Amino acid sequence: MGKYASGCVTRRGALRVLGGSALGLAGLALAGCDAGSKGGSGSGGGAAAVIGKPHKGTCKIGVLQLADHAALDSARKGFEQELKSSGMRYKLDVQHANNDVLFCQGVAGAFAREKCNLAVALGTPALQAIASIVPQMPVVGAAITDLAAAGVANSNKKPGGNATGAMDLTPVEAQFDLLQRLLPSARRVGILYCTAETNSEVQASMAEDAAASRNLEATRFCAGNADGMREALSSMVGKVDVCYAPTDNTVALGMKAYAKAATAAGLPIICGEPGMVEAGGLATCGYDYAEVGRQAARMVRRIWREGELPGDIPAWQPEEASRKTVTNEAAAGALGVDLSALDA
């Protein structure tokens, strides 16, 4: 059975070592986690000893969650549940970054210092931080939009290197089909996302293509932080008929406030994932994030117990059949949207 340690790296400690810069972090040591340093790793050699051979001992796993919102919370819970039933012996060190990329980089250094055998990254920026700061460490991503586009894999089918993962590339085309069924008179679409996230840039381009193929006008409304996102959303009002919000961590974190403001202004939001709809968005066609987490746990087992190389494990993407349409009746009522259009 696994053991669990959490909260062992402080934000102040991570940023102090960073000194405000990500450069040179791989060679720095962070103060470690007492709970994680006891009991050994089974291999005794940290990340380097993991690669390419099976292990039966305890696997020390550093888990880094970029932000605390519904999608990533669900992925982490699915990961932990699957790992518990995997038959592996393990110890978890779970860290929450509060959407702070500098903190992600600091935690990556701490995982190396504490000789974690493997790392699991929830969210694309978290995966990028670990892969860049400690490239020798096997890392499995969960809820990653596109491993190759994020620069951590040669391709999604054969990643190469030490990173693989369970992707959540949102079905943009299906979401635009949903948009047109619910809002047939909409012609102007505003794409809301944070420019600090490469995963969102990928989806914004896909949304533009989806809009163009339907003769819709798409405009990007974006910013580099949460404060700017509120301004971006406000600037949409009167300029677009509907807002499209992809699986963006900054948007997901502030979704309750964004949705409240948008609904008050009569602006529907078509979302990238179900958690954003639960927070007040109108609708989505999306995936089960618990399953994304379970798939990541299975990859961890393949690397640790079966000795597979991360770079030989193809990235996983949910199947089309697993998509589920989720709507928010309260939002629909406030916006005057007839959800019965989906029954046709």
UniProtKB/TrEMBL annotation:
The organism's place on the tree of life at top rank: Bacteria
SUPFAM superfamilies associated with the record: Periplasmic binding protein-like I (SSF53822)
Listed Pfam families: ABC_sub_bind
Name of this chain's protein: Putative ABC transport system substrate-binding protein
